[in-house]
Amino acid sequence: MKWLQLARLDHAKQLLERSDATMETIARLSGLGTAANFRTLFTQRCGLPPSAYRGMYSRGGDGPAPPEQPTSHGR
To answer: Which UniProt keywords are given for this protein, alphabetically ordered (predicted)?
Structure first.
């Protein structure tokens, strides 16, 4: 049954990346139950809450923002 849970989390990730659906809607569409259950399971399995995961994609990019480069002074 672990594979089913992982498949549901993968579906939830796609929804977080590509939609502005609420956590309640994503939980329901992914078969993960309530929003609270979804948040708990997602955080345990992915290492960050779903809202933070979505934030990585809401900047208009394809994933996490690259680290900022130090500015060079005097060049």
So the answer is: DNA-binding, Transcription, Transcription regulation
